[in-house]
Amino acid sequence: MTSTSEIFPIGKAAPRADARAKVTGTEKYAADYYAADQLWAGIKRAGMAHARLLEINLDKARELAGVVAVLTHKDVQGSNRQGVARKDQPVLVDDKIRHAGDAIALVVAENRALLKKALELITFTCEPLPEIFTMAAALAEGAPLLHADHPDGNILLQGRLETGQGAAALKECAIVIESSFALARQEHAYLETECGFAIYQDHKLEIAASTQTPFRDRAEIAEALGLEVENVRVIAPYCGGAFGGKDGITVQTLLGLAALNAPGRAIKMWWEREESFNFGAKRHRAELHYQLGCDRDGTFKALSVEVDFDTGPYDHLGGVVLALGLEHAGGPYRIPHTQIQGRAIYTNNPIGGAFRGFGVPQVAAAMEQMVDMAAVRTGLSPLAIRLKNGVKRGDRNPLGVTLQTSTGLLDCLRQIEQDPLRHEAEKWKAQAPPGKLRGVGIAAVMHGMGYGPTVPDTAHAKLALSREGRFKIYCGVVDMGQGNATTYQQIAGDLLNQDFAHLELILPDTDQTLPSGSSSASRTTYTFGNALIGACEILKKRVCERAADSLMVEDWQEFTLLPGRLRHLPTGREIPLQRLAALLSPDERVVSNRYRAPVNRDQPTANPGLKLHGIPHLIFSYGVHLAAVEIDKLSGNVAVKKYLAVTDCGNLINPQLFEQQMQGGIAQGIGYSLYEDLKVTKGVVQTSNFATYIIPSALDLPEMICKALAQPESSGPFGLKGVGEIAIDAPLPTIANAVSDACGVRCREFPLTAERLLRALKKEEDNAHKI
Amino acid sequence: MKEVFRPRTFSELWQLRRQHENAALYAGGTDLLVQMRAAKINPQTLICLERLAEIGRIEEFNDEIAIGAGVSQHHLLENPTILKYFPVLCQALQALGSPHIRNMATIGGNIMTASPAGDTLPPLYILQAELELRSQKTQRRLPLADFINGPGQTGISPGEILSRIFIPKEPVFAGHYFEKIGLRQALSIAVVSIAALYNISTERKITAIRLAWGSLGPTIVTLPEVETFLIGKTLNPATLNAAATLVEQQVKPISDIRAGADYRRRVAGQLLLRLDQPANYRQTSA
Amino acid sequence: MLIKFNLNGQDVEVETPPARRAVDLLREELNLTGTKEGCGAGECGACTIIVDGTTKLACLLLAAQLEGCRVTTIEGLEHENELTPLQEAFIAGGAIQCGFCTPGMVLTAQALLAKTPLPTEAEIRSAISGNLCRCTGYQKIVESIRLAAHRRAGELQ
Fold first, then answer.
1. Is C121 found in the same domain as C89?
2. What is the CATH number of the domain that holds C97?
3. Between A26, A34, A667, which is nearest C28 by CB?
4. A476-534 pLDDT, tens digit each
5. Which one of B30, B34, B113, B184 makes the best mutation probe of the A interface by having the most chain A beta carbons within 10 Å?
6. Average pLDDT estimate for A591-607
7. Which pLDDT value is given to residue A647?
């Protein structure tokens, strides 16, 4: 069945390269690394939100037989700091505890039971500091500072962008809609919790970790622990899910420190589910205030946005989340006068960090509900108001940035308009049984791709002809489950005319593959794919040239590659690749190619912080979603019954992988809309397992129909642009708009739990009685 | 090192219990092993009852059915006798945990855990189940409602085990209804649940009704006044709304991580309105 | 304690502490890392195995309970390099993304089809409702199980 002897052209659903190993249980994830005499490492956590660490008592733990090492910040030789932009997070606390998950000490023991016991034996004293659990408290006059050395106090990053007359233009609008929104923290909830496996021997530290960023990790580990970069190797197997939660250090530096202190012994660290819930990074909680002004005919004129993100105590890409939030705050619309401002704010809550969507789900949730409210006020349908104001290529977006690349929003809207499912949904809505309310809603979103204008969005593809005559693709970017490794195989297979049997994937490994950036920002296949195309061309030419030399033919273009061989077309003579490989030196058989993504030259802001964190992007994907929901009047429970998404993400290389990304993103988005709420009290997570933090089961999700416009983005590999994140941006407003369509009620706090909705329905009913 | 024993007969069990007085007993392990992992308990000796044949049977007698405490929830759900006599129990079992949990967990375990959110408990209360408790020397039978004292608290005596659950076949009810409001459709813990047994006359007058709610208090909640109110009234939304108001006045749920007290109170009453749906009523009784 | 059981068609004897969790015994002692651990509390289904024909959660089973049982893990499905129709369907249907839930899903579906050869979509969704997946939204998993069922039914005809 699984065809390894087929050449899968671009556009065909090639089966995933990893599928067989995953379906037989033989794929080796970071969690699956074990060694016979392996040790276990674990973390003593602070358990309190804000305090000055005074003294750590390690004696009892050290005395325990079978405990190999008990380590504190004093054992760290390097900077003891980690982070991507601001390196403000200690590997092990050396001064202040800033959240409950801070690492106080690291224990290495012979087995898990001993590890647990030793961790319990560690005690420490500290001086409590005033705690900050709300963004308002962080901003209050005289608030204690989380990082005394940060020039902006408790504001990690802030930005303000203005176009036209800014917020002043609201005064001239015939209609102004105003609303506030609050969105909960979301947990990544990948099934493979944070884990890794390390060994230090012959002066080299090797770590296999579940990570999205092996090359950045290597640099961070080296700096934090005081090692030379070349003495650190990071191996990144397929992740058991990541979604941004492994975009940055989780276990790596601590595991490295453990290995340095137990040379020659393999060490495993694998967080338990509760540990992952309690101490891993989360999607930022956000509070937003919106004012949208328009003419009576529904033409958008002015927008004012204020958005605050609770970034927790450390910069885990919180600045990027803010920047993306600001850039997308006005949605995919023409709005001539805008004022968009926001802050990422330090608190003693759990760390807010990277999560698929990066700030866009929060702002899209607000903006797309504002648009529906404007539709109600102007008497336009939700589709009509979006068609009226939606951007097309050449327009300026709400930041004033000219859209210079493929812009398929209006086509997505038109496709939704004509889709039979929309008509079916409208009919279905009219047939609600007693006790149920039904509604249909839509939302339109855009999502920028890549790192923005300052940070180089580069990839280095390495490709080799093996001695056995197969092509080895050295993947520089992690496959955390999206299937990008398979896409690389498909690209190389198409360009080199090879079936999967003659293609081999080398997964990211800092000793073998080349730096190609993070598996994030919807840029993975765009950037690495473009690099790989170049590498394929170089190697193809080289192989054909050497074949021409060996057959004493003048023109290398008379050759074509075929699976495992070359054919000289004029004569039909063939050379097996294996034989040709023997003629080439190992150095000749390897090529590499660098690609750097183009950047936007528009200048919506002079703020270097915002530019560094990604404003403005050049290429955007677009999407319009439609949901049909049913509300149970007795319980307030919302069920999503039908779902349709139309996406402009350029051409599709593999339609099945496109659907996987879309369906998975929508599923997470439905969870974000209706169920998922990481509750935190005094800095401590209250929902630290799957019984209290609710992600959707198979019974909670509808069929999701996902269509692509498949209009090429000319700069993309085979016309592709990013699709990894956009699916999660739209479900919340789509569902909220459908709920409002069903019952006329709009909640301002999310997720839209049954409890919240029932309360709102009751309030509405009571108000109606009063009138 | 922890020990694990798996007695096959009562006599093996009694002997083990004499030798290991502090042993923890479990059947499916879906509760006990979770508590052990959370370090809430740390028993050094475990006695697993899954192979104890004497508590693994379902028996039909003239006027009652006896369910062995060790019968898995999955087996109960598959059993035609249970479905025939006690649809309300089957409805509750279908909503319990997940298929894997139902394969492992037992009805006895659900009772012994004595959680107010235990899904089988509201139906068992209104089916007026009685429990058989055995020790080496004693055997006694008492109503379930008298056995459960609070969350995790039962009237079990040292040396005793829950051996069988007896459910009377009569009176027969044509209306069987169970519903759980949880936070999702599977793997959910009740925010509120309701179990109802009722009969109506041809004129839609309620002739008999029994009601019980889960997750509204420390134990399963029954409201005799609401039942009394409903008897003799016509089954329609007006009657049920009036009863719902009574329910809301009488229950005193708590707020927790899953839901607030107000929500629980409101939904506890509102769920009564489901009884008006004809699908929940069998035209011919069992 | 010495425990004897049948593992993927082979009789095995293994010396282990009796209260060791089955998931640890399989992964750490027997090198069968296809059985995943996602929560340790019976809430995610990643550690699903088949014991005497019934799906169970290896994080809530103690080693001693395996004594005398027939145990199937994901590694036991493939025979002489041949995948089961269900495994083939998971690959063809795109049911696999990160793959961490896949072993549990496949075994759950295997047990379902053994009992219900042609399940409805609702039956499939209900059967896998104890197996959480964070990548797929379940749709392609459901479709793949249905595909396997229909292929098998087609062959039987």
1. yes
2. 1.10.150.120
3. A34
4. 999 999 999 999 999 999 999 999 999 999 999 999 999 999 999 999 999 999 999 99
5. B184
6. 97
7. 98
Strand partners, B134: B139, B161
Q: Which of C23, C55, C76 is the last residue of a domain?
A: C76
Structural domain boundaries in chain B = 3-48, 53-168, 175-280
What domains lie within chain A, and their CATH numbers? 37-129+194-270 (3.90.1170.50), 285-452+602-770 (3.30.365.10), 458-596 (3.30.365.10)
Question: Which stretches of A140-248 are DSSP H helices?
Answer: 214-225
Q: Are residues C52 and C92 in the same domain?
A: no
What pLDDT was estimated at residue B284? 44
**Pair (C17, C34) in one structural domain:** yes
Gap between the Cα atoms of C44 and A573, Å rounded = 57
Of C35, C40, C141, the CB nearest to A272: C40
Q: Strand, helix or coil at A668?
A: helix
Q: Does C136 touch chain B (CB under 8 A)?
A: no
Inter-chain residue contact B187 with A697, CB threshold 8 Å: yes
Residues C151 and C122 in one domain: yes
Q: Does C30 touch chain A (CB under 8 A)?
A: no
Element (H, E) at A429: helix A420-430
Domain total in chain C:
2
pLDDT at C155: 76
Checking ipTM against 0.95, whether it exceeds it is: yes
CATH of domain B175-280: 3.30.390.50
Q: For chain C, say whether B100 makes contact (Cβ under 8 Å).
A: yes
Tens digit of pLDDT at every position of chain B (286 positions) = 899 999 999 999 999 999 999 999 999 999 999 999 999 999 999 999 999 999 999 999 999 999 999 999 999 999 999 999 999 999 999 999 999 999 999 999 999 999 999 999 999 999 999 999 999 999 999 999 999 999 999 999 999 999 999 999 999 999 999 999 999 999 999 999 999 999 999 999 999 999 999 999 999 999 999 999 999 999 999 999 999 999 999 999 999 999 999 999 999 999 999 999 877 787 544 3
For an interface test with B, give the residue of A634, A638, A692, A757 to mutate (most B CBs within 10 A).
A634
> Quick one: pLDDT at residue A132?
98
Cα torsion angle, C1, A36, A269, A193, sign: negative
Helix (H) or strand (E) holding A362: helix A360-378
Residues C49 and C12 in one domain: yes
Going by C-alpha positions, the residue among C64, A412, A361, C135 that lies closest to residue B49 is C64
At A1 the pLDDT is 41
Q: How far is C55 from chain B (nearest CA, A)?
A: 6
- Whether residue A151 is preceded by a cis peptide bond, meaning omega within 30 degrees of 0, is no
At A622, the amino acid letter reads Y
Nearest chain B CA: its distance from A670 CA (Å): 12
Per the prediction, chain A carries an average pLDDT of 97
DSSP string, A83-147: -SSS--EESS-SSEE-STT-EEEEEEESSHHHHHHHHHH-EEEEEE-----SHHHHHSTTPPPS-
Cα A66 from chain centroid? 40
* Topology given in CATH for the domain delimited by B3-48: 3.30.43
Q: Domain range for residue C64?
A: 2-76
Would you tell me which CATH number, out of the four given (3.40.50.720, 3.40.109.10, 3.40.50.1970, 3.30.465.10), belongs to the domain B53-168? 3.30.465.10
Helix (H) or strand (E) holding A204: strand A204-209
Where chain C has pLDDT below 50, the residues are none
Pairing of strands A503-506, A471-474: parallel
Give residues 598 to 657 of A whose Cβ lies within 8 Å of C: 656-657
Residues C116 and C99 in one domain: yes
Q: In what order do the strands lie in the sheet with A573-576?
A: A559-562, A565-568, A573-576
